[in-house]
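Hey,

The postdoc asked me to send both predictions to you directly instead of through the lab channel. I've kept everything plain text so nothing gets mangled by the mail client. Protein one:
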Amino acid sequence: MPLYIDDPAVAGGRRINRAAFATGILDGPQDPLGYNALRGFGVSQFDLALRREFKLNQRLNLQFKVECFNLFNHPNFGDPVNVLSSNLFGQSTQMLGRSLGSGGINGGLIPLYQIGGPRSTQLALKIQF
C-alpha cells in the first residue's frame, strides 16, 4: 500500500493513506515503520530585509528599514493529523505558523512572526545621534 495519496481536494495536494495502517493484532511478522518514514510538508520561505541610511548632518543620521517575511506568500502547511480514528487523518488542517504554537500559556511565538506564516512586512525608522 502506498503511504501517500495524491488528493487535490486537501491542503498541500496529498494526504497519508489510512489503509496503509492497521489496528489490532496481526498474525505473522510485522515490518515496523522506520523512524521518519512519514513526513509532513516541506517549508519554503523567502525573507528579505533592506536598509538605507541618510546623513542629516554631522551628528544626526536617519535609518529606514523594511523587512518582508515570506515575501512570495508561499503556503506552508502544518503536520497532518496523526490520530488514526479521526476523519481528518493524514490531512493538514492548519498552516505551519499556527501549528507551531500560539504564544501565551501554550508557548511558541505569535503566528505572524513564526516561520511558515502568511506574508508580513514591517517598517522601521530610527534616528541615530
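Protein two:
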Amino acid sequence: MFFSPSRIVVGAVLLAAVEARSSEETTVVSVRCGETVLLRVSEPAPKQGSLGIVEVRSEAPLASVEGLFAGEELLFWHDAEARVFQAFLGVDLYESPGAASLRARAVPETGPAVDCLLELRITDGAFPVQRLDVAPGYVELSRQDRARSQREQAELDRLFSSATSERLWQEGFNAPVKGYEASGSFGKRRVFNGQARSPHSGEDFSAPAGTAVLAPSRGRVVLAKDLFFLGSTVMLDHGFGLYSFYGHLSSIGVEVGTLVERGAVLGKVGATGRVTGAHLHWGVRLGEARVNPLDLLTLTR
C-alpha cells in the first residue's frame, strides 16, 4: 500500500513521462519505466531528517527490485503477488541540501530488467536553535565518561549498520506514550553554555515518570541496557534497516531477543542518563539516517 503524505513540494526532474495525481491534501509524483513498471515517490523534495516511501509497481510479477538514493542502498519488500515493491527513503538530519538521484532497477520474472531514474532535491529542514545554560558537567565530559560514550556509540553504530531482511512491523505505528503530545524537538540545533552541540536526533514526550512506554509497532528487542547519554534504553528492530529506540526510562520491561507486538510495554518514563527532568526520548534510524519519528505515524498503515 502506497501512502501519500500531506505535504508534497513538486520539484523533481523526471527522465520519462511524469504522472501527477492530486487530491485535496496530497500530490503523488510518478514516472513510468518502460510499458509495465511505474515508480512513485512519496516525497520528491524531502527535507533533512525526513522519512518517505518509494514504490515500484508492475503489471506483471517481479523477481526483484534494487535501488539507490543518494548513493545509499534501498531495501525493498513486496506484496504477496510481487507486483508492488516498497522501500523506506530516509534523509539524514545532516544531509546537505541539493540534488539527489533516486535509481531503481526492476527485474521481472520473465523479460529484461527495467531501469528508472528520478532526480530529487533535498531541502533544508529549517530547524530551530535552542540555547541552554546548564551545569558544566553536562557540557564537559571526563575522560572516563567520554571513553564510555564512545564505546556505546560504536555498539549502536554496529546495530544500525545491519538490516533484517524481514518485515517485522505490522499495520502502522502508534505514538509510544498515550495522552501526551510530542514536543517538536526533532532537529533542534542545541547550544549549551555557548558551545554548539549535535542536533536533537529524536522526539521528546513530556510524560511524567512512571508513564508506560509502548511499542509503536511489532519489532524485536536488540538492546535493553543503561547508556551514558540515553540512560536506560530499549531498541527495537522493525526490519529492513528500520530501528526505533526509547531513552531515559526509569525501568526496562523487556529482554533482548524478544519479539514484541504493538502496544507491548517496553518500560516506564524516567529521568535516567543525561537529562534534567523526566521525559521520553523517542528516536528512529533508517540505517545511518537519523529521521523524524513522527513521520512513521502517518507514513505507514
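Summary for protein two, as requested: The chain is about 10% helix and 45% strand.

Thanks,
C.
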